[in-house]
Specification:
By secondary structure, the protein is of the alpha+beta class. It has 5 helices and 5 strands. Helix content is 32%, strand content 24%. The strands form 2 sheets. Strands 3-4-5 form a 3-stranded antiparallel β-sheet. Strands 1-2 form a two-stranded antiparallel ribbon. It starts with 22 loop residues before the first helix and ends with a strand. Keywords: DNA recombination, DNA-binding, Transposable element, Transposition.
């Protein structure tokens, strides 16, 4: 007696269906966002967390350069001066106040250039951070942006180290997960200044999504000249 083998059936995958968004809610969200503006460099625009990351990255790299060793290196046990935690500091930039954790050393001799002692207001930081967040910039262009902010007071090796760390931070921000539903998406373009030997104006495509709660989320900044 012969038997017929039945082909194995693959288990069916469950499909999650998102409930439809009320068209009236979409209309209200669009009107509200358009009325408030979706600028990237103003309050509620480019996340201040990104500015905080860039500034704190520069501060930590500067402290490592000052002490002569990186975090968790054995050299920290041999030197007379070493890391001594951080202290809170609020600085004001164009997008508003930013809470920073400023690194300290035991001797108190660390004098950072990223945010100087007793400095409370920084100018032009939002423009540089916005430019750094654009996908498509080369390592050389990012390094030039940072060098422009520090001037001649920081060595090229330090700028290179800060650049590598900032690129890693920016990649994490660019690849972060977003909301599953954006009832409203604004597509626009803006012009940012890119420094690489000389200053040039570069068109950047922007996409800003509005969640069902009315919060704005930057979905992407892409350098059109690189596409």
């Amino acid at each position: 007696m012969s038997t017929t083998e039945q082909p194995a059936q693959e288990p069916q995958q469950s499909v999650v269906v998102q409930p439809p968004v009320d068209p009236e809610l979409v209309r209200q969200l669009a009107q509200r966002a358009a009325g408030e503006g979706v600028e990237l460099a103003g309050p509620g625009g480019l996340p201040q967390r990104l500015t905080k990351q860039v500034l704190e990255t520069g501060l930590e790299v500067e402290r490592s350069e000052h002490l002569g060793y990186d975090k968790h290196e054995p050299a920290s046990r041999d030197g007379e001066n070493f890391r001594n935690g951080t202290r809170a500091k609020t600085v004001t930039i164009e997008v508003g106040p930013v809470e920073l954790e400023v690194p300290r050393d035991r001797e108190g001799s660390f004098a950072p250039k990223t945010v100087r002692k007793r400095q409370r207001r920084l100018r032009g930081v939002d423009e540089r951070v916005l430019s750094l967040a654009v996908k498509g910039l080369t390592t050389g262009e990012i390094s030039a942006h940072l060098a422009d902010g520090y001037g001649a007071e920081v060595s090229t090796d330090t700028i290179s180290t800060i650049t590598d760390t900032v690129i890693e931070e920016m990649s994490t921000w660019q690849d972060r997960p977003g909301s599953r539903v954006y009832p409203v998406i604004f597509i626009d373009a803006l012009v940012v200044k890119v420094r690489n030997g000389q200053v040039t104006n570069r068109p950047v495509c922007t996409a800003v999504g509005v969640t069902v709660d009315g919060e704005r989320d930057i979905l992407g900044l892409v350098d059109r000249a690189r596409r």
